[in-house]
Write the structure tokens for this entry.
Amino acid sequence: GCGQLAPYAHGDSLYFNGCQIRQAITKPLDLTRASKIMFVLQIGSISQTESCNTNLSDQ
């Protein structure tokens, strides 16, 4: 579904819909003092609700 992938993810999430190539590029990150960086990825979802989907052809 949409929203956070709790309990693992915190903050905003990125949602793709449809059949295309996906790409996400972050802004530059200063990781010189970082001990780890984590991304949470979910492929597919059981709940496909109207609030999670936007038909761009209607806009």
In short: The chain has a mean pLDDT of 75. The chain is about 0% helix and 0% strand. The two ends are 22 Å apart (CA to CA).
